Give the backbone structure.
Amino acid sequence: MKVSDRLAAVDTIARTLQSRYTYTEIDTYLAAFDIPSPPNDHGSFNSKWVYSKTALKSVPLETIGKIADDLGLGALAQVSAQANPPEIWKRSADFRLFVSHLSKDKNHAMRLRDCLKQYGISAFVAHEDINPTLEWQTEIERALFAMNALVAIHTLGFSASYWTQQEVGFALGRGIKVISFRMGEDPKGFISKRQALSRQGRTAEQIAAEIHNLLAADEQTGGKLSEAQRLRGIHFSQTTDLPF
């Protein structure tokens, strides 16, 4: 997360605490997250906003995300998701790829996910990667906010699914890199103008290699992918002449 984004999140939380609580209540609220009160007493601060920002300035990002959730600050949903991503992306520095697919075709998505692992790419497949005890829609929303890119597997019926169309629209709205993989159906809507990958009898390993090359060559995703591979000690030549 950029420093400016973190500062903006802290500012929003501090202003919310200022508007809702007294100094004593702010202390009680922060204590629930194991955050100590600022070292000086309340009289040393000219506002509850400054007081709250002082208390929050060194708080871990994960805690910032939990506070944003608790306060119901929808505007900080992306901060919250980055701080508390889906289980598959916690404790992992891999590149985060959301795989949009129909539930009936989850086996294709899982096969692609497995083939992408060697490239330092962690693919989120909702029908497999969400713990049954967690709220389904909330975890998908977290993944959509936390993803670095999205791959859409266009099997028959993809364009008729509200879920998959919302996932693709979410990515486009965030300005996230979207790769369309045509597997029985042409892309519809805003992404139809972009040329799609075609299976053409290729294996999942070959498709995964092409997705890797596309992400590596794109200025929006190449840096994130390269850093993920560096942290994993992975080295791949990044060819950019594959068709797309």
User: Anything to note?
Assistant: Residues 3-83 form one domain.
